[in-house]
Predict the structure.
Amino acid sequence: MADTLPATPLQLLDDPQEWLAFGRPCTPAGSPLPANAAEGGQGGAESSTWESHVVLEGMHCAACALTIEDALRAVPGVLQADVSAATRRARVVWQPGRVLPSAWMKAVQSAGYRAMPAMDAFARGQRQRESRRALWRWLVAGFCMMQVMMYAWPAYVAQPGDLTGEMEQLLRWASWVITLPMVVFSCGPFFASALRDVRLRRVSMDLPVALGMAITFVVSTAGTFDPTGIFGKEVYYDSLTMFVFFLLTGRWLELRLRDRTAGALEAVMNRLPDSVERRDASGGFTRVATRRLAVGDTIRVLAGEAFPADGRITAGNTHADEALLTGESTPVERTVGSSVTAGSYNLQSPVEVLVEGTGGQTRFAQIVALMESASLQKPRLAQLADRIARPFLVAVLLAAALAAAYWWPSDPGHALMVAVAVLIVTCPCALSLATPVAMLTAAGTLARHGVLVRNLQGLEALAHVDTVVFDKTGTLTRDGMALQAVHTTGECSADEALALAAALASHSMHPASRAVVTAADAARTRKDRWIVANLQEEAGLGLTAMVADGTGVQPERKVWLGSARHAGMAPQGSGAALQVVLAAQGPDGSTLELARLDLVEDLRAEAPAVVGALQQAGVAVQLLSGDRLGAVQRVAAQAGITQAQGECTPQGKLAALQALQAQGHQVAMVGDGLNDGPVLAGAHVSFAFGRAVPLAQSRADFVVLGDSLALVPQTVLLARRTLRVVRQNLWWAAGYNALCVPLAVVGWMPAWLAGLGMALSSLLVVLNAARLARELPPLPASPVLPEMAVPLANQASQQPLNLSKTTLEPV
């Protein structure tokens, strides 16, 4: 079979090998299963539930989305169907043992629409062709409008007696001839959609528009063929052509803007290449479909291509763009033996990669699953708009009929044109687009900067947050520790003490040991001058070894590195810093203290600025941690947080969070996702750093892919801006209808002006939402807080800390 899906019968999609092209195996609840759940051919597939994503053709509004959802849910074996009017995508959860893709896709066709596999070259080609057809319809409508206006102009400027009856009739016939191809070609999709709705006994937004077009053309045609009849007083070809042109202009621009803004999500989803070069049995490379890759294959990825799977480079060196996966835009070097991830781009040169993970096993698949889920969610305000769409359209039809009945006795032609104006001006396109377009645009902007919106409703909740609660370890601080200062006793210099400590610590994987080694490397000390032998590590206490000076200056002696108890020294003070004692055996056999090394948790450099930015935005910041109280208070002080609680169990964190909520606070929780599941789920809205936990298991509403804590306040500010845009859109849609409907009913709004108003209202909503596609809001300036640690280069000249205020803790 070709690598891309040809235009063949839908039965081709019933092949289980094709299902991975537009879906993944999942549980009935919709969360993905391991990729091997799909293995084993048809039998293995039938025993699972599948989640498929399709692109829909022919839909225009929220009523269309509801129609497709109803059609899919009526198919036996379809467990769930979610359709987004803003993205024109659908998520279908189905059971292969009861139904196959061709069956539920035929149900979509029977409803009058077309479903195509998402993330497929064929679907992308179809969308391009649809865009070209929309452009041609708009061009034809524009040409016809200009010609008809040229023929209508004499009737507008002529004085009584200037135009003879024959000339006026000739101009009407010319206008009819020019208008006819526009009605057939440019208006064709509206009539087809309306006939489909009538046949299926339902209402969509195309029905009142098509009725308006048909009534206007029929009335004008009657006036052209029978000038002495009841409709012969006036023709409305100019109004019809202007209305159609304005409507198609708005829809075409809306389509382009929608693809550019909310389409940012789809651009990420379609990041993987359709095909890749795979080594065959002869040792050469042949191009195959990406979905045909398996673990153990060797592939060649050319410069400029995306890596199609997770793997390890076996030949070649390059740089990769991993911005989607880490949020970091700087290219990273990838050499032989380095790991590469699906969805990242090869920037420099061709490389050969051994495939280690495909499909749902990759982190890219988890990211796509989250983004697809978010793009199909309907925020609360959008659900309200969907619910009122159909009743509102029925009310529009009734209002138009009543307006026509009211004006009919005085002027039948004018009565019908009043009804047309009511039908057109009240079309609730702007209302249905107001919320989802803004939400999806914001989600796309966040995705480009490394924040995945797992729950689209979280944007609305985040905009109301007044308190942000941070976890400490892995959130405000990094996973490791950092050296703060070295205090010597005069037996040796700070550099010598650090080098000796690093010589022992390099043999241990304890976080404190790694921090000492990192500090020594940064200070470029000569730790290799020490020869370490007979090293022993006592868990929770420290290291003991025989150390000799490689230069022969000092004899071999016993050295201790660890807690004060391990080194035989007395504890000092009750501070929060972790101290490591370095001691050595003296010439007389006694133990001499050489130095004490202060270790602190590695606070993120941006943490103070982030806390300051949140506080400046009117958001209170608190810290909850399961660590000891002293360490929590020290981190809180360095980050600028005044309220902090330590020694909290997961249940204690949840209780503290619920206490804040009981006081009326809207709380956001920021954690690493490892042990914060209950509190992340209990908060009004939550963040998790995606590197710490599998994305599919995350309980957070927002997943930060990189390490930048600054994305949290930036997301808060963008959520507030998004809600403002949503409110502006809703107020505009409501105000537009409140103003224009009465004008149309009393006959003061012609059809062309009604069409212009409807097109501009939808376009204004999309343009207003497009403002959210710009960069993330910058953080407000905040005062610079003191540095957390003494720079290593200056540590030797610093005065020792007051040891009476320092606690000695086990390593």
Notes: The longest helix spans residues 121-157. The chain is about 45% helix and 20% strand.
